[in-house]
Amino acid sequence: MKDKNSKSSLLHLHNKKQPKPGDLIEIFRSTYQHWAVYIGGGYVVHLVVDVQSKSHTLYLEFCKIVLKEKLEEVVGNDRWRINNYLDKKRKPQQVYAIVKQAIGLIGTRLQYNVATSNCEHFANDLRYGKPTSRQVAVVGTVVGLSRR
């Protein structure tokens, strides 16, 4: 039995709702948000830096790998929330399809580009079938405004 003050109990303080399979998990890191897809049983599938890859010479473009890890381990001490923010604009794929596709990608190495294929693009592609990133849109808007 887990102690009331254990890490997994503390997670519930960050997010009152329990995630359901197919939910997008937004994790608040110090300078950015990391995204994952909840697949059930306390696990998420997410896109992380592939430390084995030799091709990460550019900061903006390098290889990432799809991993299945415990939500509490991915979150660590950071805040997180369930954030299916596009549900009002796009119809989510069937939960079974989201989870099956996510599991099928575990261990896959993918080319990563902060502007076109980041962890938020990855998670949204699994849930909605279309890669999207608000973080990139916001940065693009700020960069566009600063050039005027």
Give a structural overview.
A six-stranded antiparallel beta sheet has the order 5-1-2-3-4-6. The protein has helices at 7-14, 71-75, 95-105, 119-128, 134-146, and strands at residues 24-28, 33-40, 43-49, 61-70, 79-82, 109-113. The protein has one domain: endopeptidase domain like (from Nostoc punctiforme) (endopeptidase fold (from Nostoc punctiforme), Alpha-Beta Complex). The protein contains five helices and six strands; from the N terminus they run αββββαβαβαα. The chain has 148 residues and is α+β, with helices and mostly antiparallel strands. Residues 1-13, 56-60 and 139-148 have low confidence and may be disordered. It is 32% helix and 26% strand. The longest helix is centred in the last third of the chain and has 13 residues, at 134-146.
Break the fold down into its secondary structure elements and pairings.
Elements: H1 7-14, E1 24-28, E2 33-40, E3 43-49, E4 61-70, H2 71-75, E5 79-82, H3 95-105, E6 109-113, H4 119-128, H5 134-146
Antiparallel strand pairs: 1-2, 1-5, 2-3, 3-4, 4-6
Number of domains: 1
Q: Helix fraction? A: 25-40%
- Strand share of the residues? 25-35%
| Large-scale geometry | globular
The oligomeric state is: single chain
Distance from N terminus to C terminus (CA atoms, Å) equals 59 Å
Structural class: alpha+beta
Uncertain parts: 1-13, 56-60, 139-148
Largest sheet: 6 strands, antiparallel
- Gyration radius over CA: 16 Å
In the CATH scheme, the class would be Alpha Beta
By CATH, the topology is endopeptidase fold (from Nostoc punctiforme)
CATH architecture: Alpha-Beta Complex
Q: What is the CATH superfamily label?
A: endopeptidase domain like (from Nostoc punctiforme)
How many DSSP-defined strands?
Answer: 6
